[in-house]
Design brief:
The chain is an alpha+beta fold. The chain has one domain. The chain has helices at residues 2-23, 124-132, 172-177; strands spanning 35-42, 45-61, 67-72, 82-93, 104-106, 108-111, 118-121, 136-137, 143-145, 153-160, 165-169, 181-189. The strands form four sheets. Strands 1, 2, 3 and 4 form a four-stranded antiparallel sheet that branches. A three-stranded antiparallel sheet has the order 7-6-8, with helices on one face. Strand 10 and strand 11 form a beta hairpin. The longest helix has 22 residues, at 2-23. Residues 56-189 form the DUF5648 domain. InterPro entries: DUF5648 (IPR043708). Keywords: Signal.
Length: 190
Amino acid sequence: MKKTKFLVSILNLTFVICLVLTSCESDNEELPIEQVSNTTENNNNTKSRALSSQNVYRYYSGGSASLHTYRTQGGQGIGIGRREGVSFRTDVARSRQEIDFNTYNELYFLLHPRKIDFVLTTSPTEILTLISKGWKDVSRLVLIHKKPGNGRKKLYRFYNTQHSDHLYTKNYSEGVNAGYKYEGVTGWVY
């Protein structure tokens, strides 16, 4: 029990250090595809930020170990198998300073170490748990809206226990009709 608590404490500390290091990166990176400029008010100072609105493509590798993976048009995530098309659109930031955390959650793309499952999540607990089990974070600064509005739709999360496969879709019926178990709403997307 003490060993588990110690490992969780180490993982939490590692996660916080990674967040601090990420927030200190320079902004000299190139702008991602399809820059969208927004202006926000922050403590009476106008702060300009550029987000990239990007397609997220869904890939499918069938067979006995079916797998859905997801990749943004800017290269975040991973695509294994046949590309099925655009699953949804969402924003990607160049740096953590550009993120309005009242509007967005960071959306992490996590790949199972044996490439048998792929998870999209905003949950810090789930992220730490999966990374501690060897899952790889294959995303950086992908965002998902916290609330509906302006044409956004729910991004549903489904799970197929038979194939250990997660499915993310804006179409609730797609997951149910494919025999997947509904797990909830990940956030709101276009």
